[in-house]
Automatic annotation (TrEMBL), chain A:
Keywords of this entry: Coiled coil, mRNA transport, Nucleus, Ribosome biogenesis, Transport
Compositionally biased region (Polar residues): 19-32
Lineage, top ranks: Eukaryota, Fungi, Dikarya, Ascomycota, Pezizomycotina
Compositional bias (Basic and acidic residues): 131-156
Protein name: 60S ribosomal subunit assembly export protein loc-1
Basic residues compositional bias, start-end: 186-196
Main location: nucleus
Keyword Ion transport included in the entry's annotation: no
Function: Required for efficient assembly and nuclear export of the 60S ribosomal subunit.
Family the entry assigns: Belongs to the LOC1 family.
Automatic annotation (TrEMBL), chain B:
GO molecular function, a single term: RNA binding
Domain PUA intervals: 100-175
Alphabetic keyword roster: Nucleus, Ribosome biogenesis, RNA-binding
CDD domains: Nip7_N_euk, PUA_Nip7-like
Example GO BP: assembly of large subunit precursor of preribosome
The keyword RNA-binding appears for this protein: yes
The name this protein goes by in its record: 60S ribosome subunit biogenesis protein NIP7
Family: Belongs to the NIP7 family.
SUPFAM superfamilies for the chain: Pre-PUA domain, PUA domain-like
Subunit structure: Interacts with pre-ribosome complex.
Taxon lineage: Eukaryota, Fungi, Dikarya, Ascomycota, Pezizomycotina
Gene source species: Coleophoma crateriformis
Amino acid sequence: MAPSRTSTVKSKHAANKSGIRNSKTSTRSQSDGVVKSKKPKSKGAPPKPQKSTSTLATLKKKRRVYTEKELNIPALNMITPIGVEKPKGKKKGKIFVDDRESMMTILAIVNADKEGQIESKMMKARQMEEIREARKADAEKRQELRKAKLDETKEGMRKKRKRASMGDGEKKENVRSEAASGTKPLKLKKKTVSFA
Amino acid sequence: MRPLTEEETKTLFAKLANYTGNSLKNLIAPLDNGANSDRYVFRLHQQRCYYVRLSLANLAVSVSRDKLLSLGTCLGKFTKTGKFRLHITALPILSEHARYKVWVKANGEMPFLYGGHIVKAHVGRWSEDCPEHQGVIVYSMNDTPLGFGVTARSTAEARRLDPTGITCFRQADCGEYLRDEDSLFAS
């Protein structure tokens, strides 16, 4: 296997370049006619695929190269997370705040912020309180109304009863014990009669 | 040991402003009117923030980092996520500039100093118009600061609360000097 491989490799170059006719390679190439006939084919063949690759390359070059922004890739889907990436051209290291003026400005900003927060909290609490108060007052009013209505009906009943008692004063005791509608006393009357 | 960055200063002031009012600016005011007068500064050392006189901070530079244990008043600690946690050691500074206060009755002092929240029955007095979840300083009835916390209810709501209801959540109390003795000054 090995010699045949070497021969094929050498034969390509040896056929053209070697001027020594006695050499093994020259003799072989002359004797092997079939190989010779194949040579031009093999020679012609390589440029073709090369051409095809070059055309492919040109096609590839012609294709539009998209930037990362155009592809709509999520910002976090990267090797370096977006938060970690440091801005270029910026000085490395921390910036300290040690002078009084800048500290005062920071303090003023923070204080104003907190003040606003507390104020809004207070406002909210006050509003909630107001709503609660209103709801409470409403509930009380409703309760009062209900009570008044109940009293009214009670009064009405009492008046009716009085009228009934005025009509037949003998059955006062029975009516009191039952204290229902005006029709009941009649039924009760029957019962009392039966018992008596 | 280093001064604070802008971000850290903002976080620290925001935290302090929860408990204090406008007088917080007196914290960094110069001690006298001279041009080179001494003033108080904030210094960060091993994640802890110290409130210290500038002259003292400059002297402390001569102590090597690993040998320097503490300087000035420790206000608290910066967490690894960049938040700030106040320690009980900041109480003297906070109590000076307190905005909202709660006074605890004598029978409520010990429960608070043992780490309990403040129930309504133990409250002797409180600042009016205090909103919900607002930082407050806790005092005993004779005006000794005992600790600090956040209100559970606004003053108006707390009035309606039953005696066992929590009015103030504890955040730090003086009992920590004993309870957290090991971790309070050195990590």
